[in-house]
Amino acid sequence: MPRLPSFLPILASLLVGASALHAQAGSHTVEGRVRRPAGAQGDSTGMGPLSSAWVTLHRVGKDTAGPIDSMRTDAQGRYRFRWMPSGASDAVYFASTTWGGIAYFTPPLRKADTRADDAELTVFDTTSVRFLMSVKGRHLIVGKSDTTEFRTVIEVFELSNDSLRTLVATDTVSPSPTWSVSVPASARDVRANEGEISPDAFVANPGRVSVYAPIPPGVKQVAFSYKVPNSSFPLAMRAEYGAVVFEVLLEEPQGFVTGTGFANVDPVTLEGRQFRRFLAQDVKPNADIVIELPSSGTPARSLYIAGLLLAIGLLMMVVLMRSVQRRAARRVPVEPTLRPRESDAPMHERLAQEIAALDASYASITTPSDIVQKAYDTRRSELKAALGAALAEQGGRR
Predict the structure, then answer these.
(1) Which of 85-99, 267-281, 384-398 is the least confident region?
(2) What pLDDT was estimated at residue 316?
(3) Complete DSSP assignment for 238-303
């Protein structure tokens, strides 16, 4: 089980790697298979080939983006593309297929000749019948009091779909979420952190948050943040689904956590700020915990920057986790274009809004460290490149 402190040491190297996908000279090929769980009801752990499935080769670059080739798989579920890289040298290529209204993607095709695991696409049937998903890890971070006498709380859940079906929201006028969890009644400014769940698939209601994104077999991370007033402490919370590992980080030196199985372990340091760490294993569903903090704290910076770094770190950790889990469920489905609760705004407008939100968060930091500066510059460059491609595509349609 990865620990939160491990996200920051690898952040810089991961960001550099993510921005260094340069096309190689000469022709490129990708040869892989499309597979799905065998059996009429998809109830076997074996995998069978998916024939006659459309597979599309995509190119995404600063100059242009879009599909460049497509084909159907053969009787063995195999597909093969050969192409000559063109245009901007930083263009990224990948293959995708769609099954049950959900799109599945390969990782970026980095090599001149990509085969085996890196070219395989595993798809799953979908279901809107909700079932219980286990929580492999729950991480809760509570910051110091800010100048408004509020504390920022970040929550990260590692959900495990142990079935062979992708859970989707019901396609009705009032769709049911794929997953939801309670938050303190005093929580304000509840919002999804950037990661595997799009903010458009995240809904906050008083005392509860809901997710409408597809949840495929395997592990998926859900991260969100909110603010609670100092008057809410001691704060009583409930482990609604339990957790294999439940970790609480408190920036307040006098903070304490009480609850069955929780132990005070060695503190950790994030961005030069120390957190007390409390850990419990095999927490039972609906177990109660209480977070105790001093009645008043020294005003300090909120956890905005910690949220930014943790969200980016989580996204990168997912990449590492999925590479280890590839043999069980190799490809992560993304949300379908027409799922309920998603924004109808054009892509370039959504990207522009994300850049504005990132700039606002960065501007609130008085003295950013080198790693914060690097994370901000890298993420803004990626968003700017994507915005340029979206604008170019929008202009081409006129």
Answers:
(1) 384-398
(2) 52
(3) EETT-EEEEEEEE-STT-EEEETT-EEEEEEEETTEEEEEEEEEEEPTTEEEEEE--SS------S
